[in-house]
Amino acid sequence: MIFPAEDFFTDAPRPTPLFSAVASESEANLWTTINGWTAARVYSSVSNEYETAKSGAALADLGPLARYAVRGAEAAEFLGRLTTAPAVNLHVGESARGLMLNDAGYVIDLAEVSRLSDDLFLLTLPAPHARHIALASRGMAVEANDISGDVAALGIFGPQTAGVLSAAGLKSVNETTAASGVLRGVETAARPIQFGAMPGVELIFPKEEALTIWERIIRRGAGAPIGLDALEVLRLEAGAPRPGLDFTPAGRAGASPRTPEELGLAHLAPLDRGWFNGRRALLEKAGKPRRRLRAFAIDAEQASPGAAVFGDGKPQGRVTSCAWSPARKRVIALADMDAASAGNTYEISSSDPAAPRLPAARLETVESSLAKAFADEQGYTQGLATDFRR
């Protein structure tokens, strides 16, 4: 799951249920806000936290995300219309990624759906959408309750995730199935998640038990916390767009809306997945993108969002987000480009107008590989789904 853009003007940020626990681990004392919740940018250093995620087990406070418990006889059908995730086809214990679209087929937000029982689902979104959900549920046998403020959520990911969970006493929880378990006497729900290209597990438990669970994981599991800045590097390496940063969600003032195809996410909205909201409009827009979100590797130690992208010397777009990648030893970036743009050589403008442009090259990521396979093998107009379960 991807965090939305940060709130830079929140007057009174709220502490997440895990705040007092994670704050004690913070050496850098660098904080920001997401959806009005306090979130750590860095705990120790970006490089240390990045390496922990790559070789160990990183612990992320996921409290700032929006969560809804969706229950009822028509819960699956409701989620299958509200999002492009195949809720009706999910078995108990399965999760799927998807998108929320408006009637015109433009992306409102990312979405993840987990089926916890026959009639109970967990809907996780980067940002809250209470009004949109309430309107969509009218006339259906379903209840959608915002539980964001009632639960604590801890993400654990990296190659040592299974070992951390086992050491903490959650041997039945794994990175492929949503399940329930008991950790130190606390009923805990778990679901598979993914940060960048790395699978992991999200633990969700009553907020009153946040410190108990955190201490159990830290003392027995030997994981280490990770902040937003290191998560941002992992996100960019995977090529996943961030709402409010790489695109403005449809419906916001001044938004230039984007279709799933324009964001490189057509594989999350296959046209045969059901009658999700916006599907009819996508049938008309499929194969006709106006823009493209593309990934680049920039031969430099730093670059800036908003920098111009040149293809064969001609301006073709702008950088929307970027970060230094320790794995690639380059800056990696996402850029909003004209869909018709192409080039043999690419350059990125420097923050210093007098400096030469920075050499760049197109970059294949996890997300772009999925999108390419979807387009090449089945075609946007066919709309046949890739494997969605995890």
TrEMBL record:
Coiled-coil ranges per UniProt: none
Signal peptide start-end: none
Boundaries of every GCVT N-terminal domain copy: 31-249
InterPro entries: GcvT/YgfZ/DmdA (IPR028896), GcvT/YgfZ_C (IPR029043), GcvT_C (IPR013977), GCVT_N (IPR006222), TrmE/GcvT-like (IPR027266)
SUPFAM superfamilies on file: Aminomethyltransferase beta-barrel domain, Folate-binding domain
Segments forming domain Aminomethyltransferase C-terminal: 291-349
Pfam families per UniProt: GCV_T, GCV_T_C
Name of the molecule in the record: Glycine cleavage T C-terminal barrel domain-containing protein
Organism expressing this protein natively: Hyphococcus aureus
